[in-house]
Amino acid sequence: MGYHELKDIQNLRDNNATERWLKYVGPNGRRQDAAHRFLHPKLQSGKFPNLHVVVEKQVIRVLLDEDKKAVGVEYQTNPRFLANPEFMTAKQTPRSVKARKMVVCSAGANGTPLILERSGIGNPEILKRAGVPVVEDLPGVGHDYQDHHLTLYAYRTNLSPRDTINGFSDGRMDVAEAIRNTDELLGTNAMDASGKFRPTEAEVDALGPEFRAAWDRDFKNATDRPLMIIALYLCYYGDHSMLPDDSQYVSMANWTAYPYSRGHIHITGKDVSDAPDFDVGYLKDENEIDLKKHIWAYKLQRDMWRRMNIFRGELASTHPKFPKGSKAAVIEKADGPVFDKDQRIEYTAEDDKAIEQKIREIVSTTWHSLGTCKIAPREKKGVVTPELSVHGIKNLKLADLGVVPENVGANTGNTAFVVGEKAASIFIKELGLDGAQGKAEGGEQSKRADSPMGQESQDVVVGQ
Hints:
With 464 residues, the chain is of the alpha+beta class. Helices cover 23% and strands 19% of the residues.
C-alpha cells in the first residue's frame, strides 16, 4: 500500500508510516509510572519530612479569603474507603489544610474544573444553578473539553495464545502464577505497532468540500500533522465471553489526532457526590469533519488488515452491518490474506452509511482528556495565564492536562510529564527557590530545585 516501517515515527516530522511502538519498560519487565519515579523515592528516602501525602481523600474546594487569595483546601474522606458501608451516603464534616504561599491544583482535566467551580470560580450561571456563591466570573472553567476519539475493530488471526495477552483477560492465565514466574507477557501492554496517516488529495476531495476546506486550513501545509493514528493491539478489547474459541482475536484502534469536537464538564451541585454535567462532545463538530476522518480511517485500516499475513477473518460484531450483496461485506473466516493488489475494497454510499452508524455506536475515549482550564486570555475562555495562575485569583496555580489549549497528535502521557516539569520550574522560580539546589550538603536537608514538593514552603498540592 506504499506505507513504510520506520524505526521511530515519534520524531515530530514523519507521517504515512508505521513503527513497532516504543515503550517504557525496564530490564526487569516492569512498566513505570509517574508516582513511582517522582514521588515514591522522596517519600522513602526520609530526606523530605515536610512532604505529606494524604490518600483516600476527595478535595471539595479551594479556600479563598476576601481578597480572592488561595489560602488552603477543604477535603473529605472518599466514601469508598470508609470502614462502615452505612457511612457511604452520610454527610461528612470537612477538614482543611492551610497554605501561606501557594495552592497547586492538579486533579486532571476532569477533576480540576469541578474543584474550581465548587470554589466559586467559573461561569456564574452554572455556579448559581449549583448553589455555589460566585467568587470569580471565569466562563472558561470546564469549557472546551477535548479527547482523542477512539474506535476499535477486531480481527481473527493465526497467532498463538502466547502471541497475545488475551489469556489475562479471559481468565485462562493465572496472574498470580505469572507474577511468581516473572512471565515475560507481564512486560507488555500489547500495544505493539502503530502508524500516523494522512489522506491523498483525491481522498480529501472524496470526503466533500467542507472536509477539503478544513484540510487546506489545518493540515495541508502542516505536513507534520497526521489526520489519524492507527494502532495494532495484540489483544481483544471487549467481552471475551462473546468470542468464538476458534482463534486469537486482536483489535485495531483508530483515533483522531487533532479532533475538532468539543465538550464540557461542570458541577451540578456543591457536593463532591453530585454527578457532573459531562458532555464528551464526540463527533459534534461543525460539518462532521471528525466523523469523516473516522470513515476514511476505517477503510484504510481494513485494507491494511486484509493484506497482513496473520489475517484470518473479521469479527462481524465489531464491524459495520453492510447491506446485503455489498462488495465490502465482512469476511468472517479466511485461510490467509484476502486482497486485490491493484485495488482497494469498494464502498457504496449505503456502505458509508453503515460505517457511520457503527462509528457512532462504538466511539469512545482514549483517556486523553484535556483543555478544560486552558492557557489563554479570559476573553477567549482561558482559565490560566502562561505562568499557570488562575485569572483573578491570587496564589492559585493549575498543573495538569486541563491547561493544554489544543490537542496533541500522540498519547498524552509525555505531554502530562512535560506540563508537570514546566510547572515545577515556574513554581520554584516564583517561590524564590531556583538557586537553592546544592546549598545544603551531607546530612543537612537539601532544598532541591527539581522538587517543589520537597521545599520548606507552605504549599498545598491538590491531586485526585
